Structure formats: structure tokens, C-alpha cells
Amino acid sequence: MNQDSTIISDLFYLPSIEFFVAVQDCDEIKIDPSERFQKQTYRNRAHILLTNKVDVLSVPVLGSSKKQCYREVKIDYSQKWKNVHLRGIQSGYGKAPFFEYFYPYFDHVFEKNLTFLFDMNLELLTVCLKLLKLKVSLNVEQNIGKVPESADIRGIIHTKAGFADRDFMTPSIYPQLFGLDFVPNLSILDLLFCMGPESREVLAQSKKNH
What we know:
With 210 residues, the protein is α/β, with parallel strands linked by helices. The protein has 6 helices and 6 strands, in the order βαβββαααββαα.
């Protein structure tokens, strides 16, 4: 992918490593809150590594339809998803080298019990960019059209195909906590908790044809 100064992207929940490989060299990420919400996407799911499996963290939402704007989609707190997610993250990464340093940043966002999925995902993405020390501005803009010197990657990173079918990432192996076989392209949580300040170097090495 060209090193465009602006990338227009979907907004995901605790995004995958692939997402950050894709955006690491840009100056600006534009997010469109007026896009239509789609279920069964990375907008409300993420993957983490537990002792014996890859676990899917899914945020339940209230009555969303294909006609509903992403920004209007509410999180369903009647389901105990937050406890499940936090327990899963603590179980999977509590012994990771950088867990105690980085976890409070995420816990702070979850404690807010934000009403809308878009707002929570935006705050979590802001935290991720900060911890990765990526010098990129994050801007929300309605009804984004064509933007000069930009790359529009909306709809490219999706759940129906693996990262190997796309042009962003060739995984760079780093030490994980569990298993003999390396599991690529988990949530950025996996990389941050395991590698800390070296995470940016892993992202750079993971860029396809870098």
C-alpha cells in the first residue's frame, strides 16, 4: 500500500494487529460515524489468546439494523459482556510483561460504561495509538467522500477472509504467553501486553513487502 498521508478506515473494537500495520505510516486516520452499522464484523468483536484457545470477545448491541448509523448503535449492558471481556483479558494477559503498565488505560475506558459502541471504540483506539506512540491524528468526519492523497480501506479488513488474503501484513513473530505455535493477527492487546515499547518495531517488521 502506498504511504498515503490520510487513511479512511472503519472503526473497530480493540483492533487487530493488521489494522495497525495498515495505518502505522499515515499522518491522519479519518473515521465516518454516519456509515451503516454491520453486524458480525470487527466493529464489535476482537480476538485474544487464552491458555488453550483463541477467544472471541463480542460486544452485544441493542436492536441494530442495517439502516442504523454506526454512531447510533447502543451497547447492551443487560448482558454481562464487560465482566466476561475483562476476566478474559486478565486471564489471558495478567502475567504478560507489560500488562500492569497498560491494562489500566483500557480499564479506565470500560469503567465509563459508555452508551454508544462508536464512542467506546473511538476511545479504545485513541488509547491504542497513544500506547503504540504512533504519531497519527484521529478525526471523525461525517459523510466522507474522496480525499486527496488518501487511501480508503473501509470494508477491506473484515471477518470473512483472513489477513493473508489482503495486502497489509506478513506476520512478524514475537513471544506469546501460550502455546507452541505462534498465533498471528490477534487484537492489538496481545502485542501491547507482550511486547510493550517494542510493539512499534513489530508493526514495522510486519508490513508486507517492508
